[in-house]
Amino acid sequence: MNTLECKAYLERIGYQEEPHTDKDCLEKLMELQLQSVPFENLEVFKEKRVPSLKTEDIFHKIVHQERGGYCFELNKIFYELLKGLGFDVTPLAIRMLWSPDDFRRILHRATMVVLEDGPYYCDVGYGGPGPRYPVKLEDGLHTEKNGTFRVTMEPQGTNGEILMERKRDGEYRPLMSFTLHPAQDVDFEVLNYYCSTSPDMWLTQKTAVSISTPTGSVALTGDTLTIQKEDGSIESHVCDSPETEKTWLKTYFGL
Question: 183 with 71: CB under 8 angstroms?
């Protein structure tokens, strides 16, 4: 992104300060991105299209059309923003381990950002169980409002991939694994096509929209709206008509 595009994108997510290439700025950028730009698969599921991964097309979709996107779009454009602001960034291809139906395939994109104190894992396209703030890439725990995560840099049984786990019900469950080898745009083109066309992918089978809020999160999965509140309680509603879904998309996700 050039300077004017970076400025427009920062306005889109509500960032009003002078950007700096430090952890505080990175955390704020991620927080605002997740609270302003929803994860959404409407182009894939409802419009039956393969999303473009060209930077200018994603920029138009998110900034001018005020839409969201899914991981390949969201983490691609956030990577371009960070690069335009002067951050040291590397695209990463991620192996998904959280859901049993993921078959441990590489189906996700994220970003490594190197700050003065070392590398961090940054992800604005996972939603749900993923970390919402930068995670230091070193052995140890990362705790945030969204949960506790454990990073193991040289685990057993991952073929040399770094392992990130999430604590759930008192135990750590594998969330994802990855190497720090830079991924290429062409790698994601293939994954993007598969994820947006394969009947084996849940993204092609039902509506999936989510966004973070200052107090929790909101998600529309299939016909169920789920609101997670600050105290951890969950409020659910079942959609009863296309008009209700349209209202929810506008009210909760700005779509």
Answer: no
69: which strand partners? 39
E-assigned strand segments in the chain:
39-40, 88-96, 106-115, 118-122, 135-136, 140-144, 147-152, 162-168, 171-178, 208-213, 216-221, 224-228, 234-238
**Residue 203 CA: distances (Å) to CA of 46, 73, 234:** 10, 14, 23
Report the Cα 123 to chain-centroid distance in Å. 5
Residue 74's identity, in one-letter code, is L
Which of the residue ranges 8-12, 155-159, 172-176 would you say has the lowest mean pLDDT? 155-159
Q: What are phi and psi of 89, to 5 degrees?
A: -125, 150
Give the pLDDT confidence score for residue 146 in this predicted structure: 80
Determine the average pLDDT of the residues in 119-146. 93
CA distance linking residue 8 with residue 1, whole number of Å: 10
Task: Note the pLDDT of residue 102.
Answer: 52
Average predicted confidence (pLDDT) for the chain: 94
What is the token pair recorded at 171? 């135990």
Rounded Cα distance between 140 and 152, Å, is: 7
Q: Please work out, in degrees rounded to the nearest 5, the angle formed at the alpha carbon of residue 129 by the alpha carbons of 82 and 89.
A: 20
> pTM score, two decimals?
0.94
